[in-house]
Amino acid sequence: MPLIETRDLWKTYVMGSEEIHALRGVSMEIQRGEYVAIMGPSGSGKSTLMNLIGCLDTPSKGTYLLNNKEVSSMDDDELARIRNEEIGFVFQTFNLLPRASALHNVELPLVYAGVSSHDRAERAKAALIKVELEQRMGHKPNELSGGQRQRVAIARALVNNPSILLADEPTGNLDSKTGVEIMTLFERLHQAGNTIVLVTHEPDVAAHAHRVIHIRDGQVEKDVTRAA
After folding, report:
1. How confident is the model at residue 228 (pLDDT cuts 50, 70, 90)?
2. Residue range 58-79, pLDDT digits in tens
3. Is residue 158 one of the residues assigned to a domain?
4. Eight-class DSSP state of 210
5. I need a surface site. Which of 36, 48, 129, 165 has the fewest CB within 10 A?
């Protein structure tokens, strides 16, 4: 059973008198434990697809199943729960609270999930150890380098043991050396059993994934799996 399954997914935006079809019938399956890049030029629909996979938006038409649960028909409360428990987000801009320590930033999803403060701290520490930041737990974002901030964001994404790690241009704000370090970390997390879906327009970033789904004009143009 696939972890992610989309069937004939459409997303249409109405702009004045015209309809913009951001996605035009995307069907695909992603299995648990896969490392997939979704790639395409600006305006291809890849960000729209990521928002649907991440339950940040709902499709205009079609079906989306996550963990065999039909997400396309869920209400806002159910979607919020899925976002917090099933999906770990990593964004290009890190999205960290500037006045909070690395540890507190990582604890945030657990606060929303109602986890006790002792358990929160333990789980957040464990997540920071996974991304090799145990020496920086008390530091605030402005005391960290860009790469360290992204590691905090990845630890925060991991802290709920989500089904999917969903990364949107995760190296976009980093220099190339730091970008390589972050991609090496993703590879390690994948080897540890995490399912990773990476959205990027950069071929060298997509090359780290084991499978690349190319999106163009709102449709799957090609779907390539790398030989093991």
Report:
1. low
2. 899 999 999 999 988 888 899 8
3. yes
4. S
5. 129
**Contact by Cβ (8 Å): 205, 183:** yes
3-state secondary structure of 37: strand
Does this model's pTM top 0.70?
yes
Q: Inform me whether the pLDDT recorded for 120 exceeds 70.
A: yes
Domain limits at 198? 33-58+86-225
Pick from 82, 64, 70, 56: which is nearest to 28 by CA? 64
The number of domains in the chain is 1
Within a domain: residue 186?
yes
Residue 30 pLDDT > 90: yes
Three-state helix/strand/coil letters over 148-206: HHHHHHHHHHHCCCCCEEEEECCCCCCCHHHHHHHHHHHHHHHHCCCEEEEEECCHHHH
pLDDT cut 90: percent of the chain above it: 78
Torsion of CA 6, 86, 153, 122, to 10 degrees: -160
On average, the pLDDT of the chain sits at 93
In a domain, 123, yes or no: yes
Residue 173 belongs to a domain with what CATH number? 3.40.50.300
Q: What is the dihedral of CA 67, 70, 71, 76, to 10 degrees?
A: -120
Q: Which residues of 116-132 are buried (b: 16+ CB within 10 A; e: fewer)?
A: eeeebbebbbebbebbe
The answer as to whether 213 is a domain residue is: yes
| Phi–psi pair at 101, nearest 5 degrees | -70, 165
C-alpha–C-alpha distance, residues 93 and 148, integer Å: 13
C-alpha to C-alpha distance for 212 and 40, rounded to whole angstroms:
10
Structure tokens at 183: 């991609």
